């Protein structure tokens, strides 16, 4: 199963909106076939492993990181393919998270007399597809808020200059995070201040990334710009001239309406809250409908604060540089003042590691 999980991870940059899945087929203690899902529309991991075996897999044991699918989608159901192939036993890391189909793959296998075990390295399998599972169960993407900041939680000097606070290694990791995301959300303030592309710069990824994972250099995440005050003229900013951009503006009648402007730009009209700010949850719901599983937020302190205060950020990714920018520098967080420490719901620190001269902190919503 460890080998199957390692294989599955190879596809984590390319399989969305599908999960990353790996499969290993064993007979008499020897691996006779293995494979993983490369991208949506292509054969699933079980089929790739059976093809890799090259001969009959009858009587063999199949180790797979996710419950074999039971329905017809872009490809036929893998559970039925395993039955037809005559495997004797199937070991599954974790069940299908979709409540509409969960357990059906296992049932097909058991009804055919195949021995089934579920739960081997389940936690590792759940972590691998954390974003997919959340989006399927809750119909909302997994959200990571990324911030590059100083030790005193500042993101720029008082005049707005910020190149570069963090190290080259940290910036490489950000490109990797972008490559793994289906969409990147930012605010109009960031667009006006920085005129960013917010694309994946694949030439900045290390050679090790290309060796370890499948990478599609043609893939670029959808850029999503929240423009509550309608300050953005797309003709003035470079990001609107390439790739795909969803410009989100207030809806006058609280209806979700989209308008395709050109090959690069679509405007989505979303409902607002009582203060006239675009409803972030409505935007996330729309992205879920577009099969965006994983969303990265790269924004200024106000929008970051909204994600945190509304508990819409599943994960914080903080790149902290060993620098102090001072009291007048721009803060990373514009959250409301907390009246009591007792009412705080802390994030759970997942990892802290070195990133060049910086340190990289990942924290999960507790």
Polypeptide structure, described:
- By secondary structure, the protein is of the alpha/beta class.
- Helices cover 25% and strands 27% of the residues.
- It folds into two domains: 1-128, Cytidine Deaminase, domain 2; 139-364, 3-Layer(aba) Sandwich (Dihydrofolate Reductase, subunit A).
- The protein contains eleven helices and 17 strands.
- Strands 11-12-10-9-8-13-6-14-17-16 form a ten-stranded mixed sheet, with helices on both faces.
- A hairpin with a 2-residue loop joins β1 (22-27) and β2 (30-36).
- The longest helix has 12 residues, at 168-179.
- The chain starts with a helix and ends with a strand.
- Its cofactor is Zn(2+).
Topology:
Blueprint: H1 2-9, E1 22-27, E2 30-36, H2 45-53, E3 61-66, H3 78-85, E4 89-94, H4 104-111, E5 115-118, H5 122-128, H6 130-138, E6 142-150, E7 154-156, H7 168-179, E8 183-187, H8 188-194, H9 207-212, E9 222-226, E10 245-250, E11 257-260, E12 265-270, H10 280-289, E13 294-297, H11 301-309, E14 315-321, E15 330-331, E16 347-355, E17 358-365
Parallel strand pairs: 3-4, 4-5, 6-13, 6-14, 8-9, 8-13, 9-10, 10-12
Antiparallel strand pairs: 1-2, 1-3, 7-15, 11-12, 14-17, 16-17
Helix pairs in contact: 3-4
């Amino acid at each position: 199963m460890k080998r199957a999980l390692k294989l599955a991870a190879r596809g984590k940059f390319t399989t969305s909106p599908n999960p990353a899945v790996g499969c290993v087929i064993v007979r008499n203690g020897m691996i006779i076939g293995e494979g993983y899902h490369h991208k949506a529309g292509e054969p699933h991991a079980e089929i790739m492993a059976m093809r890799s075996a090259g001969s009959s897999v009858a009587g063999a044991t199949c180790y797979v990181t996710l419950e074999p699918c039971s329905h017809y989608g872009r490809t036929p159901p893998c559970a039925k393919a395993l039955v037809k192939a005559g495997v004797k036993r199937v070991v599954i890391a974790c069940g299908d998270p979709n409540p509409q189909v969960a357990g059906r793959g296992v049932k097909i296998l058991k009804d055919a007399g195949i021995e089934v075990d579920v739960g081997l390295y389940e936690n590792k399998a759940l972590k691998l597809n954390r974003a997919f599972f959340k989006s399927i169960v809750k119909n909302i993407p997994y959200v990571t808020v990324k911030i590059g900041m100083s030790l005193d939680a500042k993101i720029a000097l008082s005049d707005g200059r910020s190149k570069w606070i963090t190290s080259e290694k940290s910036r490489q990791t950000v490109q990797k995070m972008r490559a793994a995301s289906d969409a990147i959300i930012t605010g109009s303030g960031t667009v006006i201040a920085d005129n960013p592309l917010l694309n994946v710069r694949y030439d900045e990824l290390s050679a090790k990334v290309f060796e370890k994972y499948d990478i599609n250099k043609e893939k670029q995440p959808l850029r999503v710009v929240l423009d509550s005050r309608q300050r953005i003229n797309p003709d003035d900013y470079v990001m609107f001239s390439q790739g795909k951009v969803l410009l989100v503006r207030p809806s006058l009648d609280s209806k979700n309406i989209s308008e395709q402007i050109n090959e690069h730009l679509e405007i989505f009209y979303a409902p607002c809250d009582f203060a006239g700010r675009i409803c972030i949850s409505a935007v996330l719901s729309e992205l879920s409908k577009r099969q965006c599983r994983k969303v990265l937020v790269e924004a200024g302190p106000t929008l970051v604060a909204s994600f945190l205060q509304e508990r819409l950020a599943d994960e914080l990714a903080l790149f902290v540089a060993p620098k102090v920018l001072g009291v007048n520098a721009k803060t990373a967080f514009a959250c409301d003042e907390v009246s009591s420490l007792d009412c705080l719901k802390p994030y759970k620190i997942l990892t802290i590691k070195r990133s060049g001269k910086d340190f990289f902190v990942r924290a999960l919503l507790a």
